[in-house]
Amino acid sequence: MFVLRAALLLSSAISCVLAISVPNERRAIAAGTVQTVHSFPNGTIMENLAIRSNGQILATIITAPNLYLLDPKVNSTATLLHSFTGYQVVFGITELKDDQFYVVTGNATVATMTSVQGSWVAWRVDMNAYSRGSKNFVSMVAHLPGPKMVNGIGVLSKDAGLLYLADPFGGAISVLNVNNGHQYVAINNSYTVAGPPFTTPLGANGVHVYQANSRATPYVYWSNTAQSILVRMPIHLSDGTPAGNPEVILSGFETDDFTFDSQGNVLQAVMGSNSIFRINPNTKKFTVVGGSVNSTDLAAPSAIQIGRLDNDKNVAFVTLNGGGKVPGAVKMLNM
C-alpha cells in the first residue's frame, strides 16, 4: 500500500511539473516554430493523434497496428501503448468522454492503396483504466462490415455515444453508436466521393463537428483528399444527417485531417503543401501558420490537435506521414 501511495504521489508531482514547466518554456518560442516531439524509424507513416486532458499524446501509425503514448515535449520517447494483433493498420482516433478514446483498425496496404472490406473494427481505449494500472484497457466496440475503409473519426454526440466515421474508399460518412454497435450511412454526396484533381481513391477523410454554442447551427466538416477540398454542412445532431446543403470552404489543396481553434477557425493539415492552414470558414480566407512547400519541417502533415495543458492553447501537435521524404513524426508547432 505504501509503495502504491508513493508511486501515486510521485506521478502526481511529475504531472504538476509537466503542466507548469512546459507552457512556461514555450512562451518564448516564436510563432511558426516547429520542434520535434518524436521521430519514428524510417518507413513509419504516422496517421492521427488525440490529446489527453493531462497533455499526453495518443498517436496512431498505418505501417503497423500500433498505438503510441508520448509526452508533450521536445525529444519525447514513444511508448507502445497497444498493438492490435491480427490487423495491419490503425487509423482515426478521438476522445468521446473524459479519457475514453476510440480508434479504428483494419487490413489495408498503404503501398497499393487497397483495403479489405469487412476487416474494420472500432475499439475503446480506456485511459482511466490504463492510469490505474489495468492491463485490460482496450476493448472491442463493434465490427464495421459496411465501410470499404474507415479513416477519420469525429464526435457527433457525447451524450448519445455517436461517432462519425469517414469511409474514403466508399465515399461516405457513417454514424456509429458505441453503446449498442448500431451503424448507418448518414452522408453520401458528390463531395464525399473520390474525384479529380487526383486519382487517389481517398474521398472523405477527416471528419469533425463544430457548433459555436448551444444555439448555433451545428456543422459537420470533412476533408476530401482526392478532390482537394474542405467542406462543411449543417446537420441534425440527433442522427448526423444533413440539415442543409454542403459548402466548400477550401479548394485546390491536398487536405487531410484538421481541428478547430478557439475562434472556430479550421486548422487544416495540408499534405501537398507541407503546411498547416488556418481557415476562416465564413470568409473562406486562409493563412499559413506553419510549414512551407519547400520545407520538410512539416512534411506531409496528416492530422493536428491543439495542446490541452494550462497556457498551452497556442501549441499544436501534428502527425506527419513524411511523404516518403522523411520518417513519420510527431511535431510541435507554436502558433
From TrEMBL:
PANTHER family membership: NHL REPEAT-CONTAINING PROTEIN (PTHR42060:SF1), NHL REPEAT-CONTAINING PROTEIN-RELATED (PTHR42060)
UniProt key word Signal: yes
InterPro entries: 6-blade_b-propeller_TolB-like, Hetero-Diels-Alderase-like
Protein name: Uncharacterized protein
Keyword annotations from UniProtKB, A to Z: Signal
Domain of life per record: Eukaryota
Signal peptide: 1-19
